[in-house]
Amino acid sequence: MYVDSSKTTINGKTYQRHLFRESYREDGKVKNRTLGKISKCSEGEIAAIKLALKYKDNLAALLHIEDVELHEGLRVGVVYALKTLAERLGISKTLGNTRQGKLALWQIMARLIGQGSRLGAVRMAASYGACDVLELERFTEDDLYANLAWLTEHQERIEQQLFKHNSAGAGPELLLYDVTSSYLEGMENVLAAFGYNRDGKKGKKQIVIGLLCTADGDPVAVRVFAGNTGDKSTVAEQIRTVANTFGIEEVTMVGDKGMIKTPQAKELTDAGFYYITSLSKPEIRTLLKAEVLQMDFFDSELYEVENKTDGVRYVLRRNPVREAEMAKNRQERVKKIQRLVEEKNSYLAGSLKRDKDVAQRSLQKKISQYKLNDVLELTHQERVFTVTVNEEILKGVALLDGCYVIKTDVKKELLSTEQVHDRYKDLAKVEHAFRTFKQSHLEIRPVHVRTEASTRGNVFAVMLAYKIERQLSELWKKCECTVPEGIDELGAIRSTIVTLKGSSCQKIPQSKGLAAELLAAAGITLPSVIDAKNVDVVTRKKLAPKRK
């Protein structure tokens, strides 16, 4: 095998062609045949191929040729892999091929690879070859902050196009909705406020995030609210999102009992949507008192009651496992209070100077904390406390242990009893998304940005990163490898820079072991040669940092 190169001049213009050929004998004569054209290869690549063919029987000799230099290249493997998946999911096309679209794609990739700040994403781009792979010119952290604002400005368009890409030809939609919060570092974020804290971070302001997902848990829209926004107040915004952005008519919104109350259910109905939610224990007791429901209906099997007046359906069930857990938990809390009473009695008996009233307040506070005010009665005689269990009230409190009621206005011909139950249970998929957002490697918290546009853009970038995360998680199930582990493995794939007589090219070596298994499972093939432009990335301007 050899490379046949020739030049032809026509009308004063010189053309060069390169053919990959081989020699063979036929009837005692030497003949040649062309295996392929490689004229589109760069001069450096042609030179590398010729050199490899020259030393094909002794490749080790290449290491001793003075004209050849080998250098460790960039960690391009994971960037190519994520770029392929982003194209497959329609993210790349939706973001567009402009500079802003490419910067947004890199921010999404950076969130999956290493999280951190915008400055960290710029530094990461230099070592992962983001500019070469994505064909990006140099950028700074200021460019990435501005790009967050661009993401916010184009968010609804991007969500709409991605929704159409992923649900083309689909029928009526069922959408899952849930709300969480994420705490902030600092006090200057424009959306920051004290509210119901789900992160366990006392003294930290927060933002509230509402996430809309399809029935299989794929995120389609995310909205950011002020930190003191109640869960129920966010539903109207998501109704507007569905109605205006996605343009679908038959929608069933699934939300938990803290979110879709009577006013929100009415809003959904008025908008022409259906809803699936659950009832709180007080609401269940109200229906029992009105004899709409009966305790006999609660069983380990599903039971449905339909209110003919308003068409509302109630799906009932008692979960025996949950019932046993709740009874055990309550009994353990009662025992803890009883032990605490014994400890306080011993403490007071040690000295008359010890204040009985302080001990009583401490016990009463703990009883309230354990939500046992109705069940336990605390009395004292002189300096000795006694706690008594009111068995009658305890029986009433335990009556609904393990019981739950799902409420919906979806017609039976659209969803059966079992389907209504299963769709409500699908809310766990949104909860999984939030856990990945907040506790996994996507690491949305703590939020460091300050402006409204940057905050919304940051959360939206995380949502888009989660779409890729879900895809990788599904593809890599059989590899017994988590997404962070897989990304680290692919991040170890580096290119090799080959320089021959002043011409350079970047080659990606063939992967082996786990990396090869991960690429095969995801259906990804890495290129053998990178058309590198060797673009440098500026890590920081020599200016005072701006507030973002």
From TrEMBL:
GO terms for molecular function: DNA binding; transposase activity. Residues 194-466 form the Transposase IS4-like domain. GO terms for biological process: DNA transposition. This is Transposase IS4 family protein.
